[in-house]
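Quick check before the chapter quiz. The format below is the same one you will see on the exam, so make sure you can read both the input and the output lines.
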Amino acid sequence: VLDIDDRKRAEDEVRAAGDRLRQITDTSPALIALVGPDHRYRLVNRGYEEQFGRPREAIVGRHVRELLGDELYAKNGPL
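Here is the expected output.
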């Protein structure tokens, strides 16, 4: 059984790892995304915000087709 201090420490480590991942992906000049098996965005980098003119909060959780549009989605297929 984890005590409250162990749980807090584990949560802090997970949060810090997420922050590091965001820093790394946001400094890349490439578009970087994590897409789930349901074809919904789980993570996008700053490049996605700039390319599509939307904040990441407006992209994460959306289906790839919603962002790309039907034509481009059909041309490229599911990611």
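If your answer matched, good. The mean pLDDT is 90.
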